Amino acid sequence: MREVNYVAIGQRRIFRAEVRWQGGLITDVSEIGEERAGLGYLIPGFIDAHVHIESAMLTPAEFGRIALRHGTVGVVSDPHEIANVLGVDGVRFMLENARRSPFHAFFGAPSCVPATPFETANGVLGCAEIEALLAEPEVCCLSEMMNFPGVLARDPEVMAKIALAQRIGLPVDGHAPGMKGAQAAAYIGAGISTDHECFSLREARDKIAHGMWVLIREGSAARNLETLMPLISESPERVMLCSDDKHPDDLLGGHINSMAARAVAAGHSQFDVLRCACLNPLDHYRLPLGRLRTGDPMDAIEVADLQDFRPTRVWLQGRLVAEEGEVLLPRVRVEPVNAFDARPVTVADLRLESDGEAVRVIAVEDGSLVTREKRLRPRVEEGVVLPDLARDILPICVLNRYRPSRPALALIQGFGLKRGAIASSVAHDSHNIVAVGADPESLCAVINRVIEHRGGIALDDGAGGAEILPLPIAGIMSDDDGERVGEAYARLDRAARELGSSLSAPYMTLSFMALLVIPELKLSDQGLFDGRTFSFVDLRA
Description:
Blueprint: E1 2-8, E2 13-22, E3 25-34, E4 41-44, E5 46-51, H1 60-68, E6 72-77, H2 80-86, H3 88-99, E7 104-109, H4 127-134, E8 139-145, H5 148-152, H6 156-167, E9 172-174, H7 181-189, E10 194-195, H8 201-209, E11 213-217, H9 225-228, H10 231-234, E12 239-242, H11 248-253, H12 256-265, H13 270-285, E13 300-303, E14 311-316, E15 319-323, E16 326-327, E17 359-363, E18 372-376, E19 380-381, E20 384-385, E21 393-399, E22 408-413, E23 421-424, E24 433-437, H14 440-452, E25 456-460, E26 466-470, H15 482-498, H16 506-511, E27 521-524, E28 527-530, E29 535-536
Parallel strand pairs: 1-4, 5-6, 6-7, 7-8, 8-9, 10-11, 11-12, 17-22
Antiparallel strand pairs: 1-2, 2-3, 4-13, 13-14, 14-15, 15-16, 17-18, 19-20, 21-22, 21-24, 23-24, 23-25, 25-26, 27-28, 28-29
């Protein structure tokens, strides 16, 4: 039994209560008086309604251990990152790892693997694989349908995947940035019920008017909370909160609790905020988690106040799993799984030839996944392109990690490296190796370091120093403690800035330079790609 200030979200009331539970279930909630200062507040646990756990570079069990300290008791995760690497076996790895933890990890069946036919992935999920995954008890939806052209054209395979989920009453998550009006109506009319890709308030309001749920996102890569926050008061019945992609150092600092605190500080009702952060995901995805009613599982958090939402205690099915920021769960040991068959590269492999005429250059903008195309004359000596540190035009390489291949090469502006090189096998969505360098030798060394470790985030300082965060699980996740992973990731980001990078998050930016579905110019292992025309283009302009 615990005496608390009980937050009745639906009734929009707070009162002093005695809450009793036994065998993991709440047996009684007795109101005993008015809200009392100094007494903790009991609320349902926070839910991240859409996240790619792999982006934290942690297993589901380890992600849960870190998230619990922030009061997150459950997530709806789209495992399409590991699915691109290992196919259905990768998704089953996530399910099985999650089952070894009391943290409530639910999953969607990835709908778009591979993401495009213009890059090399190792996994393919067709209708048969999706149907099998939808039958798993932890699978609560068909994950984000990124192929919105296929939805609008009513492509038979796309519609068959949607029908598989609808047939068993599971929702279909969307991915429709910028879509409004008749297009949005057609997309939603195909049976898609959520979107986490709204960048403007007008777009989000339009989608809600068409009957969609809008997920307000605040992650490491994309941050839309400030823009979309008015929806919390306008349409609390159609809004959820999510992170989408949360890098390990960011996860150490906060999660959905931080979003809730910012919304309350901006003047939104605590009841509306908690409805969006705690209850709406349970309704939409029909998750069997507790809502603090008699008979519910005791999935709850106690917070000191309803402003910063700092959890003092966290319970999962009646078990105390975190107290005063300390998680009381042991780590779940894991055997790494992987797919990695890249051969080492040589400096000669990284030679980019040019006649000195203008070439297409990928122009990076800090804090944005969108790049621009520039047409510039490269620095050339004897027909070979050289790094141009004065104009910040550097070589970028993407190498197929799944089988021996020649690297794809292009030029990029905006990384700001003055020496050394950085590389990563986290490269959305196919997770080949991506690298940028200030000289060919460092670029070669850092790529080979990632290959040697069969995955990781690496740095070569150009002066004999090197670092790597190994990612032995599918080349995108660590098997280490979440705190150590977060600290190592932050250390590498700092080291990249010490090499001259002007980017606020160099490795995050690097990881999206092969994401072809976001314009303008990106590089896949198969070549330079224009996301506006959805076609390959020549380096020469």
